């Protein structure tokens, strides 16, 4: 692992341990008057019951979520080393979709803040608050792919792959690796390529831009993630008026996991999943609005992408079409493979998800990372939305209802997943739990929560 990554992780871990001790002492000090009062009723001749040392004495009358609230409110975001000197790629609303996709892809950036400089000078609008949202590369790719399909259908090219312009473009793409099939195909349709990023808001709405500052606490970031059902909270330098990094749901989960061993955290995390009032998507309730979406291995790549676009889904399980057991999952970030592999893009209408899973496994073997680096608690790349390592589609985080929330959290972190799947003893699907579901278990109840699934497909 790179020294910078190790330093970022170790510094944050050490600082969190110091915060744990400080908050523990503060809460215990508040209880001392009550404990002394109880002790005064004993005669000096009576044997005194030995008390455990302060470091292990249980905290009484402190609700775990309220104690964690105090703890999280003592962790400034600038204690996360990687956020101090970050560089973030930004997009403007007037940028062309094609150039935006190309720029982010070449930089291996998963998303970027979006600003509208044209409104600077309007009442109350300055350079510092011209940001209007955060847009994800995968969302732009899926939008462009769906628009390409519409164009292909309109001109009657589908079904005649040997003579289409698209195939000639793909043949040329083989000679220019960095200009892969998807981008070359998009370039052939100037209307789509030159569409302004802002115009995509007619099809989907990007994440609201609700920033925090380095001096704010981890609690504020958690509350924003939970209340507004966000996937990412930008961290903005109040002086330079620039975004220096992000607190993502995944980053929040990894920071939460570092509280393991803290009794308030464990009081929640070590409960079995069936003890929580999780409003998760149930697999068996397919006819309801909360019914869980799913694909099977016989579906094509295009079927899967279209299905996710239609249902505004960020992650969908892939089931074996015979046994109905889970064999993988399709995430919006997996559309990267359409950019990386021209053959997958070319065969998207005929290639099955079962085939795609095999191709994905092979490509991941070529990108194998050190085990410690993959399991890093907080990766600097995650703070800047950099695509440093994409987990295999066959890597899924599954858990049974009698297993603990902490166990599910560790499995999610290991495979860098956005959601976990509840299964029975035979690996048949029961439901889905998102990172948002998990994060909300560790903070005080809020009066209102959005019930929409988190992500860049908010409507």
From TrEMBL:
SUPFAM superfamilies found in the cross-reference section: CBS-domain pair
Biased composition (Basic and acidic residues): 10-45
Presence of the UniProt keyword Repeat in the record: yes
Keywords of this entry: CBS domain, Repeat
Region (Disordered) residue spans: 1-60
UniProt domain CBS: residue ranges: 200-262
Signal peptide: none
Matching Pfam families: CBS
Superkingdom per UniProt: Eukaryota
Annotated protein name in UniProt: CBS domain-containing protein
Gene source species: Ceratopteris richardii (Triangle waterfern)
């Amino acid at each position: 692992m790179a020294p910078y990554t190790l330093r970022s992780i170790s510094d944050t871990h050490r600082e969190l341990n110091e915060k744990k001790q400080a908050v523990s002492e503060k809460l215990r000090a508040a209880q001392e008057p009550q404990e002394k009062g109880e002790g005064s009723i004993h005669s000096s001749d009576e044997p005194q019951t030995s008390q455990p040392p302060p470091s292990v004495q249980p905290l009484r009358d402190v609700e775990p979520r309220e104690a964690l609230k105090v703890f999280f409110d003592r962790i400034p975001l600038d204690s996360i080393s990687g956020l101090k000197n970050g560089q973030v790629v930004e997009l403007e609303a007037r940028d062309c979709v094609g150039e935006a996709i190309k720029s982010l892809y070449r930089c291996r950036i998963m998303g970027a803040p979006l600003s509208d400089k044209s409104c600077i000078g309007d009442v109350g609008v300055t350079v510092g608050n011209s940001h209007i949202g955060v847009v994800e590369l995968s969302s732009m790719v899926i939008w462009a792919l769906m628009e390409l399909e519409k164009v292909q259908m309109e001109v009657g090219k589908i079904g005649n792959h040997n003579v289409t312009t698209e195939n000639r473009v793909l043949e040329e793409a083989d000679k220019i690796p960095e200009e892969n099939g998807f981008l070359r195909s998009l370039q052939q349709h100037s209307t789509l390529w030159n569409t302004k990023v802002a115009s995509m808001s007619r099809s989907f709405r990007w994440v609201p831009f609700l920033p925090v500052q380095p001096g704010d606490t981890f609690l504020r970031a958690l509350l924003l993630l939970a209340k507004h059902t966000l996937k990412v909270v930008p961290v903005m330098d109040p002086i330079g008026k620039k975004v220096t990094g992000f607190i993502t749901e995944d980053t929040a989960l990894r920071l939460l996991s570092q509280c393991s061993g803290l009794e308030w955290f464990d009081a929640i995390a070590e409960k079995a999943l069936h003890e929580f009032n999780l409003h998760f998507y149930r697999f068996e309730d397919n006819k309801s609005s909360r019914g869980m979406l799913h694909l099977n291995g016989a579906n094509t790549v295009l079927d899967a992408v279209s299905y996710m676009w239609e249902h505004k889904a960020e992650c969908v399980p892939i089931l074996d079409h015979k046994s109905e057991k889970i064999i993988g999952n399709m995430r919006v970030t997996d559309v990267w493979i359409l950019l990386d592999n021209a053959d997958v893009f070319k065969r998207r209408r005929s290639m099955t998800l079962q085939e795609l899973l095999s191709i994905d496994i092979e490509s991941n073997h070529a990108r194998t990372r050190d085990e410690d680096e993959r399991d890093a608690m907080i990766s600097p790349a995650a703070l800047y939305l950099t695509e440093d390592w994409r987990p295999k589609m066959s890597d899924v985080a599954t858990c049974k209802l009698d297993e603990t929330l902490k166990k599910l959290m560790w499995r999610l972190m290991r495979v860098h997943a956005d959601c976990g799947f509840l299964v029975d003893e035979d690996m048949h699907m029961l439901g889905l739990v998102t990172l948002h579901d998990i994060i909300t278990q560790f903070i005080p109840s809020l009066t209102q929560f959005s019930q929409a699934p988190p992500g860049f497909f908010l409507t």
